[in-house]
Amino acid sequence: MQQRLIIRNVLKGIGILGIVLFLLESPRSYFLLIGSGVALFLGVTDFGRQCPLILSVRHLLYRMKSKRQSQIL
Hints:
Blueprint: H1 2-24, H2 30-44, H3 47-55, H4 57-72
């Protein structure tokens, strides 16, 4: 649990630092802006931890099957 909080705080810091560097330095470095935006998104949301579960085909099939069974009952 503690390790997740550290990783999320580091990602937030990298994202904010990247955006500040983009604003202060050269406005042509769009890769820096995109990378820092992704890091900030993963740090703020919990999507980075849940993404493999959401995109898992096995998980989606299991959810569809369980919804079908609950409608019959």
